[in-house]
Specification:
Largest sheet: 7 strands, antiparallel
Number of domains: 2
Shape: elongated
Order of helices and strands: HHEEEEEEEEEEEE
CATH architecture of the largest domain: Sandwich
Strand content: 25-35%
Number of strands: 12
Helix content: 25-40%
CATH topology of the largest domain: Immunoglobulin-like
Distance between the termini: 50 Å
Length: 228
């Protein structure tokens, strides 16, 4: 019981210390603005005390300098507010993105992982296509399988490959590359391909949250094309 009480007291002291540190940082930010204002006012008062009696400062000069002080103060407060808002938004984004952990996503990439006759990928069509062709290659670049997907609408299209080669044999487990081509009115064009992976973790950052996607790498939230 004594040990539990000591641990609780230690935890309370640690929390108090952290709160005090955060409070101190906030006070430093406020004091920095106040110090700038004090310096500005001291300079203005000194300037007025030592002005030429035969050529004193007019009201327009005083008003102009006071307006400059107000502008500087306003910019400091605006920057503080914007930083607080930005921090709040990034925290909310990270908390929201944490709900994607354990979910499958499609992100930019050109590989598929074949495991026991199952491989998933995707393509992104900006326009409808009369037909879509997907070609699968092994790590060495050798052609393995051609998939004919027929006519497709514009948008994100998930695709699955059962691991069967063009010769009807089963391909070995591993990582395979794939490309896609669309045919529209006789005109052929390459299609952006998408890699499938599971979200393992969410990594907060200065530019927002990023996702750690298994076997694919790290991606910004904006790069996720579909959650599956």
């Amino acid at each position: 019981m004594i040990k539990s009480t000591q641990d609780a007291n230690s935890l309370a002291k640690t929390i108090d210390a952290l709160n005090a540190a955060n409070s101190s940082m906030g006070k430093k930010s406020v004091s920095a603005v106040s110090e700038t204002q004090d310096r500005f006012l001291k300079l203005l008062i000194t300037q007025m005390k030592n002005q030429d009696p035969l050529n004193p400062m007019d009201n327009a000069q005083v008003t102009s300098q006071m307006a400059q002080l107000s502008t500087v103060s306003g910019i400091d407060k605006l920057n503080t507010t914007l930083k607080a808002l930005s921090d709040s938004m990034m925290t909310a984004q990270s908390l929201s993105a944490s709900g994607m952990i354990g979910r499958g996503v499609l992100v930019p990439g050109s590989t598929m992982s074949l495991i026991d006759g199952q491989a998933v990928g995707g393509i992104e069509l900006s326009l409808p296509a009369d037909s879509v062709t997907v070609k699968v290659q092994d790590a060495a670049g050798a052609h393995i399988r051609t998939l004919q997907l027929g006519a497709q609408k514009a948008g994100i299209l998930p695709l699955a490959w059962d691991g069967t080669t063009d010769q009807g044999t089963a391909a070995a487990n591993g990582i395979y590359k794939f490309t896609a081509e669309a045919n529209l009115s006789g005109n052929k064009s390459a299609i952006p391909t998408l890699t499938f992976g599971m979200v393992n973790a969410v990594i907060p950052g200065t530019k927002g949250a990023a996702l750690d996607v298994s076997q694919a790498g790290r991606f910004d939230l904006s790069e996720v094309r579909q959650v599956m």
